[in-house]
Design goal:
This protein has 386 residues and is an alpha+beta fold. It has helices at 10-32, 91-95, 137-168, 184-204, 206-214, 333-350, 364-372, and strands spanning 37-39, 53-55, 65-70, 73-79, 99-104, 120-122, 224-232, 235-240, 253-256, 258-262, 266-273, 278-282, 287-291, 297-302, 307-313, 326-331.
């Protein structure tokens, strides 16, 4: 190491300045990634219900589908064109950034009220997460922020020390570096400290992991609602059992891009992939599970509030990965029962009331593949064929 140009009295000052610079950079990143906020361009009255349109002063950073907090009311929305078509990405996004359609007023237990022009609009949630609706979500968030604090402090200290060394030991012509063969005591310390931290985190998260991944509700148990998910490039296919409560029968309800479930139930989903590895990600329910070809992987969450929530693919699965989105629609129980009965009757008619593998509809090949290619659920001891 080269000898220092800094005087002994200036080194503490350099260290403080280096740490201050790193903290300032971290604050700048926080500001840059903070949740966006804007305002209503025109008034949004309480009478403006489903399918009503409204315009924001600046909707460019708002989600295309999801929830917006207008004053204290949570409104489920979807970005649309002037003609009313949904906008997700591409060139349409550039010319239709500010117009939205109402999908639900007073979502998640809030109250639909009048909002004047200029009312505050923001995306709900924190810097890193949207609002949480899962029973185990708080534990997930606490673990995330614990790890963020540990890594954030480590980052500030190491980068601050790096900058301190950079300026404090700045070499000059004619100076020779002093070499060291290491310090076993120091190396032992900086090995043991991370090891202790990792073991502590492993013990702290054991209960959460057990709840999320090992205590998956059993199929057919009371208060458990079941669904099937087939992932393929680049779409999510969903199937619900119809009025008979059984899968692979004529009244099954298939859908592409929307998963409908009732509120107040534990939702058990069995997932399979038709091609590559995908990852089923429900940000509002803190669920993220890889969908692996050749496996049927169960995952679960509980629904506490009605609303519409985004489903994403969190695994790079090909060129269309960014477009592989869907929507979780959580209905009130009575509403869901009416919807399921109507859909079940429609699909039973489409299939002529006959249980067969060649289902009608755009996703017919998907469910034919599912029913003709059984695989076993090999997760946390399960061995049921799906």
């Amino acid at each position: 190491m080269a000898q220092s140009n800094a005087t002994p009295t200036s080194r503490p000052v350099l260290l403080v300045l280096a740490l201050a610079l790193v903290v300032l950079l971290c604050y700048g990143m926080r500001v840059a990634f903070e949740k966006p906020s804007t305002a209503l361009k025109l008034a949004l009255p309480a009478s403006a219900g489903v399918n009503a349109t409204f315009t924001l002063e600046d909707g460019s950073r708002m989600p295309g589908t999801g929830n917006l907090l207008v004053d204290d009311e949570l409104v489920a929305v979807q970005r649309i064109t002037a003609e009313g078509s949904p906008v997700n990405s591409g060139i349409l996004l550039l010319t239709n950034q500010h117009t939205f359609k109402v999908l639900e007023r007073g979502a998640a237990g809030t109250k639909a009220v009048d909002h004047a022009a200029g009312a505050a609009v923001k995306e709900p949630g924190t810097l890193f997460f949207p609002e949480n609706f899962a029973s185990f979500g708080d534990a997930v968030d606490e673990l995330f922020y614990l790890i963020l604090w540990i890594t954030g402090i480590a980052f500030i200290l190491t980068e601050g020390f790096f900058l301190f060394c950079l300026f404090s030991f700045w070499g000059k012509p004619g100076m020779r570096a002093a070499h060291t063969h290491g310090n076993h005591k120091l190396e032992l310390i900086w090995t043991l400290i991370p090891a202790v931290i990792l073991v502590a985190i492993a013990l702290l998260q054991a209960g959460m992991w057990k709840s999320m991944k090992m205590e998956i509700p059993e199929a057919g148990a009371p208060n458990v609602f079941e669904a099937q998910v087939a992932a393929k490039q680049f779409e999510w296919n969903f199937r619900l059992a119809g009025s008979d409560g059984k899968f692979a029968t004529a009244d099954d309800v298939p859908a592409v891009g929307e998963l409908h479930v009732p509120v107040g139930r534990k939702v058990r989903i069995v997932q399979r992939s038709m091609d590559v590895i995908h990852s089923f990600f429900l940000p509002n329910y803190r669920v993220k599970q890889d969908v692996v070809p050749g496996l049927a992987v169960p995952v679960w969450f509980d629904t506490s509030r009605a609303g519409r929530f985004p489903i994403m693919c969190a695994e790079l699965c090909g060129l269309g990965h960014t477009k592989m989105g869907a929507t979780l629609v959580v209905h009130e129980v009575a509403e869901f029962e009416l919807w399921l009965k109507a859909e079940s009757t429609k699909w039973a008619s489409e299939n002529d009331g006959i249980d067969r593998p060649d289902w009608s509809g755009a996703s017919s090949k998907v469910w034919w593949w599912w029913d003709q290619n059984d695989v076993a659920v090999h997760y946390q001891g399960e061995t049921t064929n799906r």
